[in-house]
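ARCHIVE ENTRY
Sequence with per-residue tokens
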Amino acid sequence: MMKAMRQLTKHIMWIVIVAFVGTIIFAWGMEFTSRKQRKGIIATVNGEDIEIYAFQYYYDQALRQAEKERGDVDEQTAIQIRDEVWNNLINEILLNQETEKRGIEVTDTELYEYMRRYPPPELREHPAFQTPEGQFDYQKYLQALSDPRVPWAQVEDFIRPNLRLAKLQQSILSLVRVTDDEVKQFFWDDNEKVKVKYLLVPSYLFQKEDIPGSDEEIQAYYQEHKDEFKAEESANLSYVIFEKKPSPADEEEIKERLLEIRDEILQGEDFAELAMDYSEDNASAKNGGDLGWFGKGMMVPAFEEAAFSLEPKETSDPIKTQFGWHLIKVEEKRGKGEKQEVKASHILLKITPSEETIDQLKEEAEEFADQVRKSDFSQLAAERDLPVLETGGFVEGGSIPGIGINPQIDEFAFENKLGKVSDLFETARGFYVFQIKAKRPAGVSPLKEVKPIIKQKLVKVKADSLAYDKAEDIFAQIKEGKSLKKAADENNVTYAETDEFTRNSFIPKIGNVSEFIGTAFSLTQSNQISSPVKTSLGAFIIQLVSRSTLNDSLFVAVKDSITSALLQTKQGQTYQEWFAQVKKEAEIKDYRSEYFREY
């Protein structure tokens, strides 16, 4: 039990470590204090509130970590991090609610035993618990466990909930089993091999022929396959966007900033230090803007032209590319003509809209949103020279064409009536105003909409049938004594021989077509030939070349590792399915739109 709990809590122990180390090293004997609560709720989960201050605290932590790892974090990434933190808090509350519902508790004995037996790696490496030689001192750790000066009660308050979650996971996964038959089937699927020759009559040869479906066939197919054409409720939105593009003034201001940096360089300031301070190319800035050696054709034209025109130690005037404004300094040159190379550094300032430009765009968008409620959407957009775009049909929770996944736009589209105009929506790309242009309830799509799809399906069905008929004719020739290759050549169809493959293989030019693989493994005698096999690619005739044999000793040698791998996979799938159901049944209220304008 303890070992399983240890494995299941590894991913959350860093929270405990930060709190613990901070306490024992800097504040032994001090009490933990909670942050002062502020008003405001950002979400509720089955009636349990998530306060905005708690959310903001974890968001700030995640954002600082991202900045530490990646450098500057752009707006879109910050929004993604914010969403991840929100979802993580939701998930944590749901799991804690499940432990309460199931009455799962961690006894003091279990808690102490866990902490005694499994000192976390972070503590093992901390100087407070190491010998003078830098080795982990387990006795020091045990002494700390029994030291009343260490506020263990508060530390335990961090660890105990995590162990409760581990016990919850253990209770869900404890019933997952892998049978001997599953293990043996996996072994055979992954190790038994065959090699075959095959003849293929491709369906596409017959799709070129004029074989349209009649109206009666189309109607019959529609009636017999209505489940194929079931559609969820969908919406189509018209919209205008005020894109967050830099103004000419923004671009000129960025160029002026770069000229000021160039003046500092000409006055003797170090290029590399200025690059580390100012350059917005995160990859090279940390190295003083160093780009290393590069030849012709490796950079965008404007950058290349400027770099190769400079003399060693010379710094360019500001150069504009699609990436922004650059200052380039050439360190060295080597080679001649087309083989010439330069070693250069650069400082990049990206051309981005200023806060003033963003504020002005927002004002314009808000004014449009206000005015459009009093007039015609398309007409007002035309008067403002704003193109009216359409999302096209999309379903709730899916990706909105041209925009992506956005729960707040979803909510507007599916909770309002036709013709409704939205408030302002903001994304990393710009400010949007939407109008609901069309809505369609869930149900079977009308025949007129799916008729082209049915026509294509009928053409494919008929082509498959004609390919199979052709393969049966060829099979009759083979039964009369022709070889597979000769029959293929005379009938102008595909002939090939595979390498060895398993049931799990991806076969070149065929893929993992189950009908082909299943038939190949059904052949038991060398040179045995199958009857025609209908697949999505066409009709195959398959001849066995060779088949490997497996012995029991190999299976015995790998049985335990296969069992372990299959069990982990099954447990992962079981847990994901269980938690997805928990989340689906939960009542989750999202109030992010009250605090952040992107929602």
